[in-house]
Amino acid sequence: MKTTAAQLLYRPELPEWRFLPEGPYDCGDGRVSWVSIQHGADIPTGSLNILDLNSGKNQNYPLDGRPGFAFPTRHPREFVIGLERDVVRLNIDHGTTTRICGPVDVHTSGTIINDGVLFEHGLVFGCKDLRFAEKKAGLYFWRADDRRLFTLRSDQICSNGKKIIQRDGQSVLLDIDSPTKTIVRYDFDIAKGRLGKGRIVIDLRSGDGFPDGMIVTPDQRSLIVALYDPLDPPAGETRQYCIDTGELEAVWTTAAAPRATCPQLIEWQGRIRLVITTAVEHMTGEQAARHVNSGCLFLADTTLTGPIVPRVFPDECDR
């Protein structure tokens, strides 16, 4: 099992951008988008960011709510964002939004959209209880073919990393509800918009960290999971696990940034690299002063082989 130290990639210029970065995504041409979910513990707004890896420059686009995820579309100046309780299309030049679906979680209060994944049939996304206390947040499937929204679950606390893979001709959803400290596998019926019974494939309950963002390796055999550690270790960890056996295969560390939030694989300069976001959220002033890289983005080498083909929001939404 190999451990690799990730290198500091980008330190956000403003402290509010470092509070809760998540959701890095490959936008092509050496550009990576990411969201700052909110700009402080008591600030209910965040931003979309686009980092140019070649120049090191970051473009920040303030939003009028808290974004849980952002994905590029085939239109270079538009993104699809989970914003508060709606999924919207944002034009970054004009700041205008068009609703794609929502509002969600109408059965309850005190939740917002938190994480999502694109796949060939549309979008799966989930919500979080803002107090991280009640099993009331929803998990949803927006199907591109007919623009229909399905409720998959309504009893999560903090829906986080998710990925859809194929196993023996069956679509499978791998899903994280962070407080459970487990990664759960569900058979996913696309036609009916329904999940089968879940079973745990990765069990992290013996450790201090909470699984947060998650991606799958190009061969769909392993998961890469960012661990949000609420304690005080000197570095954060992002780990690779075999889906079928649960075996730990690799670790990437983020020095002085224990709260890793999301990983993303990108192809840059001819190699597959790992981008990792980290957060300042829930740190005391003394902790933040010691963990000086918290809220920064990191970049690490991998031994993975491609291809890496970033998915954009499906064109069916333009019909």
Count of folded domains: 1
How does the overall form come out from the CA principal axes? Answer: globular
CATH architecture: 6 Propeller
Total DSSP helices? 1
Q: How many β-strand stretches?
A: 26
Estimate the helix proportion, in percent. Answer: under 10%
Q: CATH fold name, please?
A: Neuraminidase
Proportion of residues in β-strands: over 45%
Give the N-terminus to C-terminus distance in angstroms. 48 Å
What's the rounded overall pLDDT mean?
96
Q: CATH superfamily assignment? A: TolB, C-terminal domain
Poorly predicted regions: none
The description of the largest β-sheet is: 5 strands, mixed
Brief overview:
The chain is mainly β and 319 residues long. 2% of the residues lie in helices and 55% in strands. The protein has 1 helix and 26 strands.
Map the helices and strands:
Layout: E1 2-5, E2 7-10, E3 21-28, E4 31-36, E5 47-52, E6 58-62, E7 67-72, E8 78-83, E9 86-91, E10 96-101, E11 111-119, E12 122-129, E13 137-143, E14 148-156, E15 159-167, E16 170-177, E17 182-189, E18 194-195, E19 199-203, E20 210-216, E21 222-228, E22 235-242, E23 248-255, E24 260-268, E25 271-278, H1 285-290, E26 297-301
Parallel strand pairs: 1-23
Antiparallel strand pairs: 2-26, 3-4, 4-5, 5-6, 7-8, 8-9, 9-10, 11-12, 12-13, 13-14, 15-16, 16-17, 17-18, 17-19, 20-21, 21-22, 22-23, 24-25, 25-26
Structure write-up:
The protein has a single domain, classed as 6 Propeller (Neuraminidase), CATH 2.120.10.30. The mean pLDDT is 96. 2% of the residues lie in helices and 55% in strands. The chain has one helix at 285-290, and strands spanning 2-5, 7-10, 21-28, 31-36, 47-52, 58-62, 67-72, 78-83, 86-91, 96-101, 111-119, 122-129, 137-143, 148-156, 159-167, 170-177, 182-189, 194-195, 199-203, 210-216, 222-228, 235-242, 248-255, 260-268, 271-278, 297-301.
